[in-house]
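Working notes for the structural subgroup meeting. M.R. asked for a predicted model of this chain before we commit to crystallization trials. I am recording the input and output together here so anyone reviewing the notebook later can reproduce the run.

Input as submitted:
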Amino acid sequence: MAPDPFPLVAIRPIANAQNEWVALMMQGAARQALDGAALQALFGTPDLLAAVAPLDCIVVLDSPAVLSPSLLELLPPQRVLLAVRAASLAEEGADAHLARLQRDGWRVLLDGEAAPTSASLAVRTVARDCTAAAPVPGTLSPLFGPHLAYGIDSAARLRACAHVGFGWFEGDYPLDQPPHEGDDGGTRKRLLTLLALLARDADSRELEGQLKQDAALSHHLLKLVNSAAFSCGTEITSFGQAISRIGRRQLQRWLQLLLYARTQPEAPPNLLLPLAALRGALLEALCKRDGGDRDAQDQAFMAGAFSLLDRLFHMPMAALLADLHLPGHVDAALLRRDGLLGKRLALAAGTDAHKAQLEEAGIDAAGWWQARLTAFHWAIQVARNV
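Returned structure, recorded in token form:
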């Protein structure tokens, strides 16, 4: 594969305390800041901000000095937040530069601890790496924000960060969700049965029979197919209508995602839902880019959507797949990350991608970027309508 000059960028979803995606953090591999050339390449493409709307973008900078006048013209302040490393405040002119950025309307987060200076006092909203621990209470100003905690890897760390005043959160904590207290096992059993029916292309009446046993799933399905993002123009009031109006292929796809929808009315949204949608849409986009037919695209989407079932049900993936009878290459991808689909699933499940991994998966950097924009666009819409 020929060298690809397009930068490799990690895109990390940011959620608020209500489990809603609110922004995307743009960084290099291993949480490195992006330089001016990388930012020029990303925001010079006209589809970035449109694809992720209405979410904001947070760009992490080693220094505000990388923001040339031409680059600032590409970064609309109403959509882009600047997370500036605290160490850069020691640079000559940092005070004036940050003051000018804020005066011109940019929202600035101070990333990391800083010695008190006029610049650090002027930037009251902060970002903190909470991989090791949350800051102690009382260190965040409650009058400013939302403050961002990133690198959160557990539900316990999430609670600790929220307790000290953070309002935006990033990390792998959605993978560490405990079972909801109101789940008595009945919903899990029905969902697993529905999965098996979907996998063997069951008759619509069988699917409808299962859905009728779960009012929450039925409600979410009708809400989704009648949403502004997916509506066919006529209100759909029954499962039979949904099949005849929107088609079985799309309906099955949405049912795969509705497995992740909240099952209790009082529960917050499940952050596994947009992640499953993202993985499925990403693998589908890559398959389509290769010229895969509709069946291949559906199987790629299924692999991505099902890749979080072990986290959802708190069961080994092998046990979940035993009765589903998925195609062999989908099973291999989900269980062992084998084959081309498995390599791509490993990329989709991670955050950082290296050129060697992309080459093994048959993807160039520009194609990886475009597929992720497509996937994020779809996942954002799904999350807002379920």
